[in-house]
Each structure stands twice: as C-alpha cells, then as structure tokens.
Amino acid sequence: MATLIIAVIIFAAVGFVVYNRFFRKHEGDGCKSCGDSGCPLYDQAQAIQENNKKRA
What are phi and psi of 18, to 5 degrees? Predict the structure, then answer.
C-alpha cells in the first residue's frame, strides 16, 4: 500500500512539473522567459538590436 501511495505522489509531482513547464500559458510572459533557450522571436529581436547598435 505504501508503494502505491509513493508512486501516486511521484507521478503527481512529475505531472505537475511537466504541466507547468510545457503546457501552462504564462500570462503576459511573451518570449521574455525563453530568451536563453533559443526562442525564435527573441533571437530575431536580439539580432535587430545588435544591428541597430552597430549602425549608430
């Protein structure tokens, strides 16, 4: 019985982390939080800002 309870707790914790990390919509977050993980919008905006700095 204890094994079943521990298994349920572990699966619930893993499910909670996966849900929060991949499926939950973060309000107003946009692409700010994923800049270091290769967000295409962030990468493009960063490249444009760097090009503008070089021109000025």
Answer: -65, -45
